[in-house]
Please model this.
Amino acid sequence: MKIKSPYLLFIGDATDKLSIKMALGAANWRQELCVGEYSVKGCSVTTGIEKMNIKQASEKGAKSFVLGFANSGGRLDKQWLPYIIEAMEAGLDIISGLHEKLSSFPELVEKAQQTQTKLVDIRHPLQKFSTGNGVKRRGKRLLTVGTDCSVGKMYTSLSIEQSMKKSNFNVDFRATGQCGILIARQGIAIDCVVADFISGATESLSPDNSAEHWDVIEGQGSLSHPSFAGVSLGLLHGSQPDALVICHDLNRSHMRGLPMTQFPSIETTIELNLQAARLTNPAVRVVGIAVNTSSVSEEKGQEICAELSAQFSLPCVDPLRDGADAIVKKLG
Amino acid sequence: MKIKSPYLLFIGDATDKLSIKMALGAANWRQELCVGEYSVKGCSVTTGIEKMNIKQASEKGAKSFVLGFANSGGRLDKQWLPYIIEAMEAGLDIISGLHEKLSSFPELVEKAQQTQTKLVDIRHPLQKFSTGNGVKRRGKRLLTVGTDCSVGKMYTSLSIEQSMKKSNFNVDFRATGQCGILIARQGIAIDCVVADFISGATESLSPDNSAEHWDVIEGQGSLSHPSFAGVSLGLLHGSQPDALVICHDLNRSHMRGLPMTQFPSIETTIELNLQAARLTNPAVRVVGIAVNTSSVSEEKGQEICAELSAQFSLPCVDPLRDGADAIVKKLG
Model:
């Protein structure tokens, strides 16, 4: 089941671009799904799309009210309940990627019944999964993997999808996190699945397909991250990738959130991922490197990519600055 | 919170020893926790301990009624509800390792409130976990890892604990599956934890301890099993093992439940586990090999263990036939 569109992106009184990641992802990658942005007094950031209130959005055909912000701890501040209720009264479904469930608020559950709207907690999968079986599926799969968490795996995946579409590939982006799910209108928040079903859920995410079809699967975490490597490994095995793209962010000295950890080299990341991926697809290969170079000048970024490209004999791009055409050429 | 003991082990009308694994585990490893076994007409297997009904068990001080059997699919057959209700009326808590929750039966929830007894679904953790942080904890940890699922990791762990106790080690067995939890009276069913928290839950299972204390942690799955490797990796990282014991079962030609898969060698299993474990404990080492040789004669079993011991320069035992003293000597 797909999330209903178009979306009204609600960003509350946010003052930090990082806190409206959900809204920005949708506005940047699927503007055609977004009818407008709704913010309240005190808000100092924007996704750049048209501002409007709930009534205006409803008149323009909005079908979903998206909580486009994140609080630390993933809780839903009660101050936003009246806005959510107003949106339901206007007939909109409510979409949340917060950890705290919409359905844990009795007043919202009651209002949803009354207004025949849906509370969609996209971080909390409702499906029943099977355990993985490792049986090879038809069609081709590309998975983005990282040196660390939050190094741009989703943006890289979307950039690759965009470039493949341009070149007339038959391709689907497969979302594994809440932001990706909002963009794809469907997917599975893989880190919220019960541990026994990580690879099984991933298998269901990119089902058997026609031989020339590609799934571009959004990676999660890193095999070198002590908190999340289990998720990354189950996702890798369930994806059975034919192609891996290594994602990296400049200027990291330790794993995200863990100051005492060592950062793995790109070489180590390639080795670890190839070795593990071979369990379910012996033909796996690395087809490119994607680097977030936003911390340096464009010129310096290109220099770094050229060096990495030479070092690993692989295309290396900053997908936001350069696009992903160079990587997609390797999929030919 | 610990499960209340002593237990009455209920095995229903089971006719297959494999289906009463829970009851057998408790009777074999913690007979002192078990007051008796209760079976009904048609049952053709036994744990070997004294048979009695609920009334007799209650008079002997039983505190918990353990569902000691498993149906395929982990469902609770409604035919057992009257027995469960009788046990609650006798003041016993109900302990279940089934997938289907006791708390999903309204009549049991109501009866539990009425009788002030507890429904304990040991497969379904109630705790709130944090994500792992990889910070090194004090004390020492041994983890059993396997070439496959169900190769004897729990029995090996318990045998090692037994041998360590005999040698006056300060040691705790840490359970990660329902059967182990029944034996230890506490633990975390690690494959039932939400994926994001696998390593965090594991970290909480063997907390900071005195320098000479050992935790013997029950392993789960295998890094080479396409269905469950994510669980195994998160468990490995969260355990920060100082010592690994490699568990193996003779006569496997493919991974459990997956006929098309290749079986890893012991050598590969050692390499994969050491490599992954070094992320959270660079000083990790393999201290022994445990082989389930029950499919061959004792003599042949000892021959195989001697060969493996020579090949890997490690003690190699069948923990049920030989005990684990040879491995424990390496911990000295």
About this structure: Chain A has two domains: 7-121, 140-331. The radius of gyration of chain A is 20 Å. The first helix of chain A runs from residue 21 to 29.
